[in-house]
Design brief:
Structural class: mainly alpha
Radius of gyration: 14 Å
Number of helices: 4
Number of domains: 1
Shape: globular
Strand content: 5-15%
Number of strands: 3
Largest sheet: 3 strands, antiparallel
């Protein structure tokens, strides 16, 4: 049995983490899942060009999907922390780094790791 290539392992992990957040927000429709797949394809090429970026793939896929959703549907994921004011989306931090988290800049808090939005929203819709 061949060991899994580190690039494939990172891409599969990124896909799973972002899909978990989409499921938690109840927005994992087929066309949205296709956005994840498109990002994974693009990030595969990106890591092949810059192998040192392997640890950054999960955060980048999350950002790619967030940007694509904004263009097509609106902000995602909405902040579950702020109860008043205009609804706003969470951001991924670090923008380019390992261990990505969803953060609310208005409240100045980390909300959840990428892939763990369900624990922050109790599974309630975030879109």
């Amino acid at each position: 049995m061949n060991p899994i290539n580190p690039l494939e392992k990172a891409l599969h992990a990124a896909r799973a983490l972002v899909l978990a957040d989409l499921v938690a927000g109840q927005v994992a429709e087929a066309d949205v899942v296709s956005l994840v797949e498109d990002s994974v394809v693009q990030r595969r090429w990106w890591v092949e060009q810059w192998p040192d970026g392997l640890d950054y793939v999960a955060g980048l896929v999350a950002q790619d999907v967030q940007d694509a959703l904004l263009e097509r549907y609106g902000r995602w994921p909405l902040c579950p922390v702020c109860g008043s004011g205009d609804p706003h989306a969470l951001d991924v931090e670090p923008e380019l780094g390992p261990d990505p988290h969803w953060v609310c800049h208005q409240a100045g808090v980390r909300v959840a790791a990428v892939g763990a939005l369900g624990s922050a929203t109790d599974g309630s819709p975030s879109s």
